[in-house]
Design brief:
This protein is mostly helical and about 100 residues long. Helix content is about 60%, strand content about 0%. The protein contains 4 helices and no strands. It is globular, with a radius of gyration of 13 Å. The chain starts with 14 loop residues before the first helix and ends with a helix.
């Protein structure tokens, strides 16, 4: 089940996304961040499917970029984890329908 290292690798975000993350303004680039992270993690870990794996990724992302943490939840990584997993599922679904 644990196919990714702990901690997981971090994507190299585009200049715009990286800058906004460092400035503490992730909301302005969240869609781009999710797209870029999806591309990275689908290539780095093609078999990524388990909640534990997404949790590792979420924790690494909020450790590096604390402004991604969601303070309104028990687990601060929940928002980024759920958005990333949903986007990966959508991309995979689109890929299957094209085949």
């Amino acid at each position: 089940m644990n196919r990714i290292p702990d901690p997981s690798l971090l994507p190299r975000f585009s200049g715009k996304v990286h800058h906004e993350l460092l400035m503490g303004n992730p909301k302005s680039v969240m869609n781009e961040l999710i797209r870029e992270a999806t591309d990275f993690y689908m290539n780095a870990y093609p078999q990524l499917t388990h909640d534990v794996e997404y949790k590792k990724i979420g924790i690494v992302l909020i450790t590096k970029y604390p402004y991604l943490a969601c303070e309104d939840t028990i687990n601060p990584h929940d928002l980024i984890t759920s958005r990333l997993s949903a986007h990966i599922r959508n991309v995979r679904r689109k890929m299957r329908t094209r085949e």
